[in-house]
């Protein structure tokens, strides 16, 4: 499955993706057998993605490793197997939600909000520390990674594979002036590798378990390297921070006091945040005050937070830039679905955006005209000429089929004083047939049935007028769906017009004409008006 999911990726220098899945699997099995990977898979390029903070500081950039596609495919296979084992045997602490198939962002935000509500309503206290590691992924020793894999019982073969992945690995940093020379990676986990997140979880899991212990309630919330110890009093929280410092230090990790935050909410009167001070490496960490907010997993946390609407404004600006860009229409839609929708969805699910913030968008429904597929293919006035031509194409097919057995006496003309425009009036002796072509949108079979019934009722007044001249007068509807569906009820009447063999051919031609015309209508709508 991992191979199929990455089938559209560029193969790169290894050219592995030019081979079939069979040969790719064979290459991966060789790696498993020898517990080693090719030397080229240990090489990578590193790009720097900006984070919050001063761009002049190197700590404000996140290094992302660009690996060879073959290497990522193989790592993806290993990651899927490792994750299955971790979940099956509950290897990781239940408070760890990072890089796992859980809705961990919302779970942790819910737990934190519940604990804050509990403190307010029961006159209790909640102390929380939002801890930040300095270069967490880049400081983990490679031997700690291998030891963690062995410690969970993943097998010696798996551990040796992981060890070989990091053996003499190197990376070139992409800069404005090109790539640097290869830099040996003596420690750290490569961000960008499918296996990296799970490996980091294994390394940091002992730290989390030390703090959580056997307590049923949450003593710590973990999302990868974002650790948030919780306590009911300041002394207990400081003890948890000290324990995390000690255990993380053994793994080569250190906390960054400047980026950490602390919160002490008291439910005692006056209810609000207290200024309790907490230390990290002997340095006081900033305290969250009343009316201030701290973004925890994308959601502002605090007491009496002042909403400024900046998140909604940023989303609107992003959408405006995307829609006004030079991208193709389908690329704009893809960009909106990829970047804008998830951001708004996250804001709404976390309760960051209130109903009044999106009230303006609710009013848009008053003037907004739907541009769904039925509208485009059947009701769009801009495409009315093409819609009429699609209808006339089917009329021509019916007229040609009737030429041998019926006489055409009227086409697209009103009959008497009825003001009804009849597509065709066919006559044979004392029999007259009013034929009208209808091309509805196929909203299930009922749509075709309803379209036929509507046509028959609409042209019933024409029957009374024609009966003055002909003894037998009927109304027949020829119904073809806008997407090419053929109503079987058409055959009963059309068998009178032509032979069975010609009818079969006519159905094929009519449906193909309709599909072609509908495709052109849709393409013209997407392309927009010509300038």
TrEMBL record:
Residues 30-301 form the Reverse transcriptase domain. Keywords: Nucleotidyltransferase, RNA-directed DNA polymerase, Transferase. Its EC number is 2.7.7.49. The keyword Transferase applies. It holds the Pfam family RVT_1. The keyword Transmembrane does not apply. GO terms for molecular function: RNA-directed DNA polymerase activity. Coiled coil: none annotated. InterPro entries: DNA/RNA_pol_sf, RT_dom. It is an enzyme of class 2 (transferase). This is Reverse transcriptase, putative.
């Amino acid at each position: 499955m991992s191979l199929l999911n990455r089938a559209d990726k560029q193969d790169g220098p290894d050219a592995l993706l030019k081979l079939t899945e069979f040969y790719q699997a064979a290459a991966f099995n060789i790696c498993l057998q020898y517990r080693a990977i090719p030397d080229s898979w240990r090489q990578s390029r590193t790009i720097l993605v900006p984070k919050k903070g001063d761009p002049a500081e190197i700590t404000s950039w996140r290094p992302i490793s660009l690996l060879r596609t073959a290497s990522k495919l193989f790592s993806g296979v290993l990651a899927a197997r490792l994750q299955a084992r971790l979940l099956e045997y509950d290897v990781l602490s239940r408070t760890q939600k990072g890089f796992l198939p859980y809705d961990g962002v919302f779970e942790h935000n819910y737990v934190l909000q519940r604990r804050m509500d509990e403190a307010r309503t029961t006159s209790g206290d909640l102390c929380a520390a939002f801890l930040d590691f300095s270069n967490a992924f880049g400081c983990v020793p490679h031997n700690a990674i291998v030891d963690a894999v062995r410690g969970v019982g993943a097998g010696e073969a798996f551990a040796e594979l992981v060890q070989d992945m990091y053996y003499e690995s190197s990376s070139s940093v992409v800069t404005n002036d090109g790539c640097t020379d290869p830099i040996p990676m003596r420690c750290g986990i490569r961000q960008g590798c499918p296996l990296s997140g799970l490996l980091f979880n294994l390394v940091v899991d002992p730290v989390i378990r030390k703090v959580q212990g056997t307590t049923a309630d949450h003593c710590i919330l973990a999302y990868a390297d974002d650790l948030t110890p919780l306590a009911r009093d300041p002394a207990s929280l400081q003890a948890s921070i000290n324990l995390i410092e000690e255990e993380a230090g053994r793994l080569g990790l250190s906390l960054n006091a400047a980026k950490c935050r602390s919160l002490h909410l008291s439910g005692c009167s006056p209810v609000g945040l207290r200024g309790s001070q907490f230390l990290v490496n002997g340095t006081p960490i900033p305290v969250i005050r009343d009316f201030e907010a701290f973004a925890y997993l994308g959601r502002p946390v605090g007491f009496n937070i002042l909403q400024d609407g900046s998140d909604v404004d940023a989303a609107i600006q992003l959408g405006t830039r995307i829609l006004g860009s030079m991208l193709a229409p389908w690329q704009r839609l893809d960009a909106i679905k990829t970047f804008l929708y998830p951001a708004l969805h996250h804001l709404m699910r976390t309760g960051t955006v209130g109903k009044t913030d999106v009230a303006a968008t609710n009013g848009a429904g008053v003037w907004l005209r739907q541009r769904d597929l039925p509208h485009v293919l059947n009701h769009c006035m801009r495409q009315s000429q093409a819609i009429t031509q699609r209808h006339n194409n089917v009329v021509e097919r019916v007229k040609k089929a009737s030429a041998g057995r019926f006489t055409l006496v009227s086409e697209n003309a009103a009959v008497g004083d009825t003001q009804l425009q009849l597509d065709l009036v066919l006559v044979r002796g004392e029999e007259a047939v009013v034929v009208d072509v209808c091309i509805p949108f196929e909203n299930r079979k009922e749509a075709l049935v309803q379209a036929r019934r509507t046509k028959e009722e609409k042209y019933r007044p024409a029957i009374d007028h024609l009966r003055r001249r002909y003894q037998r007068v009927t109304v027949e509807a020829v119904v073809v769906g806008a997407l090419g569906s053929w109503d079987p009820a058409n055959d009963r009447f059309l068998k009178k017009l032509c032979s069975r063999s010609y009818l079969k051919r006519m159905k094929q031609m009519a449906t193909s004409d309709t599909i072609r015309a509908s495709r052109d209508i849709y393409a013209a709508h997407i392309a927009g008006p010509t300038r």
